[in-house]
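Can anyone check this?
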Amino acid sequence: MDDLRDSMFMLSNPSELVDSPMFIVACFIAGLVGVLTIAFTAFQWRRNINLTWMKAVARSKKNPKAKNKVPSAPHTWVREPTARVKNMNCCICLKSSSLSHSLGQMVATDSSIFRCSVCGAVAHLGCCSNAPKDCKCASMEGYEHVMHQWAVRWTDVTDQPDGSSFCSHCEEPCSTAFLAGSPIWCCLWCQRLVHVDCHTSMSNETGDICDLGPFKRLILSPLYVRELNRTSPGGILSSITHGANEFASTMRGRIRSRSKKHKHGSESSVDTANSSSNGDVCTDGTSDATSKVSGWHIAEESGSGSVTVNRSDQTSNGDIDNKLEAKTSLSRNGSINLKDDPHLEGKHRYQITDLPPDSKPLLVFVNKKSGAQRGDSLGLRLNVLLNPAQLFELSSTEGPEVGLYMFRKVHHFKVLICGGDGTVGWVLNAIDKQNFVSPPPVAILPAGTGNDLARVLSWGGGLGIIERQGGLSTVLNDVEHAAVTILDRWKVAILNQQGKQLQPPKFMNNYLGVGCDAKVALDIHNLREENPEKFYNQFMNKVLYAKEGAKSIMDRTFANFPWQVRLEVDGAEIEVPEDAEGVLVANIGSYMGGVDLWHNEDEYYDNFDPQSMHDKVLEVVSISGTWHLGKLQVGLSRAQRLAQGQSIKIQLLSALPVQIDGEPWFQQPCTLFISHYGQAFMLKRAAEEPLGHAAAIITDVLENAESTNIINAVQKRALMHEMAMRLSS
């Protein structure tokens, strides 16, 4: 009764009501609700306008007058988690991709959403059968010119060149309309935009001929690509069946990896082309398989359309597997004359035909299991900027040989590797096997954990730096103008006491470690094999490295290390310090994510020469435990220099962990003999090189001279080698 009496009193006295805290709170809540209502209404209004806008684009595409004279190409649908496409609309029904569709709530799961791995369009499972064949067409064989392929920009593209936000005809801004405005199309090749209302006028003036845009020198022109027979299709049921098989195979792979965790032998725990930067290369033969749908059909193909090949043959190290090596004959244009391999010939979806000698396309390899495991998004973004036929996904069932074989008759091309140090070593091994007269230079898009070789070549230490510097458009521009440099490659023979090889030799590009550092790498590798979901980005990978290293700080497992190894450099025995718990042999100036082991600027070591990655000399240092490794990482200490030499012999008197370029294994007593194997052409970012632009120009001059028969391939290779050595010295 008292509360009721107070309320009646406040109603009879308005001044008291205004001063009441309850009234102020009520007004605040009412105002907040009003603001939220207005914001929600505006959001729905804009969404409806945008949906109407996209429908107008879709209707204009169906207009016979607006049809492009380009061959049709079906979408390549890849099953995609809903979380990655939650703010996108289905390209067929234009409804939200997060809503259940067609098959009801029972199948409205992540597996019911598909995304085109080429153009980025999203569709519900039930809509795939109605999708128009308007995807990016990798082949335009028989056409006189490359034609613009106008399509709706279904996804936000962050890698567009400068000036691409304006209509290429009227030069007015092209942006998502809020109130009104003409819808826009985007050319899937040159990335130019055009208003739908401007397209007719532009087509009449230019004939819809496309010049491939700012990356035309790197794009494999579709005029010289022939599409071969497609993989036999299956139905919707096959996609569901494949998903179940994929899940089962993933579980089987994890069980196998767990069973291998504690098995240590004389062979490496993972035999992946001698390099897998901390598990860079996927070793599960089936877990990374991806279900792809063409129209409403499943297509078991890789990112470039290539069918997989057996990894067991392509990842053996060095030149041991002579069956895969093809003989070459020197020719004036520098291309290799490989005999056609029927095994690889039938594995391709595309074939390069009659490419002009002055073409210099880019061959791209993407390892989606590297480091932060962002290969899927990188592949999509590169498919948008380049020709899908020139991009190959690396996996445990498909190696670099497939892409290299497709490019075997291309006179001049460059290679871009999207992965970590292990992936780089894998591809370099494959290039060596091809016996190129003039091997293609290799650039690196750092997508691994350490990315030490990419750091030395000025490509950066991770994808975060790439995004801050302008995205993939900047990377492709830097690749086109990069300078050629030289990288020494080293062979590591594993011998018994009688000097007989215990297993095929391995190959080293960066460094070799024995002792405590290899133990940390081995622990991380086993953890990654058992729990791959924990390694989802570069930062967390480094956190896990630090965690595993901290566990070993108080564990003096390698206290007797100096008496468990014998070190010999160029025939002279080198004494291992008594406090050493590990020995590192370095070829480059970056270790463990940027640590400089040698320090060329150090003036206290007058009897040693500066380190170089192309002087055919290795540097040997020692480390005094895991705590020392941690101090090296933060710059509070330095490794102890031991020797420099061209021939290194490390005798293991007991079983010890060993790692090469991040690939660890547990090695029984043996002798590790390191000798110079050869040199590889690498691309160094010219923006970080004082004479980089001059080197890039000289490289173009030499390639043009070869194309016009002024010099041959052997002479061009010798001149490029000499130029790289002089500019790097």
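Reply from J.R.: I decoded it. The CA atoms of residues 6 and 12 lie 10 Å apart.
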